[in-house]
Each structure stands twice: as structure tokens, then as C-alpha cells.
Specification:
mainly beta, globular, eight-stranded antiparallel sheet, 15 strands
Amino acid sequence: MTKPLIFLPMLLAVSALAADPAKKDVPKAEEPAEPKEVVLFDGKSLDDWEMVDIGASGAVEMEGGIMIINAGDSVSGAVYKKAASLPVTNYEISLEAKRLDGVDFFCGLTFPVNSAKTCATLVCGGWGGAVTGISSIDNLDASENNTSSFQKFEDDKWYAIRVRVTPEKLGVWLGDKHIIDEEIKGKKIGVRPGPIESYLPLSLTTYATTGAYRNIKLKVIEPGKN
């Protein structure tokens, strides 16, 4: 005679519970958080960067983990190929740069300002090696608008540079020195007409000068931070 299946009700209950997830406390998987920092150049390759030759531009190469933009007849540089995946406001870009040779700007950082179609350029060491500012604001370039200043840049010396973009302001730091704090609401932002228009929306450029770069990063910042 077959013994009664005394455990059958228990097994049926367990099966019913497994079949209906609503009857048990199943923790939901957390959605992945957006990255707070993106390494734009890691010193291992230039795969994410593309040289743009506007005619007689200097070569862009890597040497010892450092990006080198060699001097050309005018503007030389490289565009970041993954810019479409990056924020266009409430962010900071930081890097270290130095001038290896030449007497004009060794760091032209072009970046989007609240739109991928609206960009500006931070010029470090232009107009003979000292003028630093943002081109362009209300059609005035870095040598003419409120952001313009004279900074001393020595050859073969690393300088820490940081740019902050928010809907209301553009900020720039040279080392620990806050050199630009510009209100942009209601103002016209755009790059200087000419060769730099070939390097949108995010790039590094030089003018008849050789520059070196490392530790290039983008960090997302909280809205409202100025």
C-alpha cells in the first residue's frame, strides 16, 4: 500500500510562491548610476582622438603616455570622437598641459556650452604667448572680452587647467587660481570664425606651437554649482 504524500501540500505551496513573484519579497536590481567622471585620455592610446588636418597641420602623436600636438603652419589638433556621449552643461574638464616649443597658444580647449552646437575655446598663451581667455563671447575673442588676462607660461612646465560649464557661467582655473568667472546668460557664445570651426565640439589645439597633454578628464557636477 502506497504511503500518503504528507509533504505534497507544502511542495504545492512552495511551487505557487515561486510561480508568483508578487508573493515574495524580491529585491529590485538597482539601475546603474551615471558615471561621475570620464577619462578622456588615459595615456595608453589615442584611439578616442582623431587628428584634424586643415592643411599643413602638425601631427598628433603619443610619447611616453603623453599626447603631443606638434606645431604646424597655423592650427593643429585633435577632436575627441566620443563627444556625443558627454554632457553639454554642468560639467568640468580638467587636464595638464605644457608648451614644448613656439610662441603662441599651446592649449586651445574647445568645448560645448549648453548645446553641442554652441561651443567656445579656452585659449592659453595666445597672441605672443601670454593672452588667456575664452573665444568668443558676443563676437569678441579672447584678446578682447572680459575673460582676457595675461598669464606667464614657461616652456616645458606643466600647468593644471580646469574649465567649468553651467547654464549661467563659464569658470576657468589655472592651478588654484580662479582666472575666469564669466556670466553667460543672454550672451552669444561661439568659436572664433576660421580654422577652429573644424575642431568642434570637443578638441585640443595649438597655433604654430607644440604642446603636451596628460590626465584629461570630464567630471559631472551638480546643477546649481557655480
